[in-house]
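Standup, Tuesday
Yesterday: got the pipeline producing structure tokens again.
Today: sanity-check two examples.
Blockers: none.

Example 1:
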Amino acid sequence: MLKGFRDFIARGNVIDLAVAVVIGAAFTTIVNAIVSGIVNPLIALIFQAETLDQALVFQVPTLTGGETTFSFGLVIGAIINFLAVAVVVYFAFVMPMNKLKERQEAKARAAALAAGVVEPEVPLSETELLIQIRDLLAEQSSGASGTHGSHSA
């Protein structure tokens, strides 16, 4: 039973998930600092409110005689917060990891080429491609018409 648990924990997925949660918590702190240190003062300049929670707030009478509050600023603040997290995650993690994977794949391809395991991919020139198309069309037309005609290249 302990061996199964150890194997489960040792799998890359669990470790990756744990790292993601820790980094996500750290990013939350950074994003909150950006929002409170930069975004909220900008909002105070524009909307004369300390935070987006207090900006774009509308009181609307209800059918029962009370009032309800629509806080569009709160929604805009959540969107800004999400976009800030997405931008930081993309530029700090996704883009560098993609570049790293591309480099690793290129090195693996180069090593395979050097070992003679894989042939290099050489794109066909336009002329070579047209010659192949011509030959395929010639084969198709000679196959469809039987042995009546012959095409010369």
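Example 2:
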Amino acid sequence: MTLVQGAAAAIAAAIDDMYAAFVAGDRARFDSHLHPDVTTWETHLPGPLRTRAELDAYRDARDGAGHRPVMDTLTARDKRIDVWGEVGVARYVLVAEPHGGPAQHTRVTDVLRHTRGRWLIAHHHAELVGEP
């Protein structure tokens, strides 16, 4: 396995672990995959969240109001990952199966930086789409 292949495999594993952490309700583990300067742009969010503090404030308010989504599964499918040195880009379809609801498909692009020996998401962009 080349260095690039190894980095791509590490990114794929990190993405899978991040979504497993969300399903498990383990916010600390989920957050361990985010760069401190992460930007988050998602269809359902109230505009782009340009800092980690904005993301945390949004999640604290959502969770405090009892609106944290409950998912049976979150699966990143059809991953395409490219790596250029200390930067990686992952594109995939996220299939979310909410508890008691139909599956939702989201196109995701994550930009990652290799920081302190780990691949961390520096930018997350997700757009809800219909069935693929």
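Quick observation on example 2: The chain has a mean pLDDT of 92. The two ends are 31 Å apart (CA to CA).
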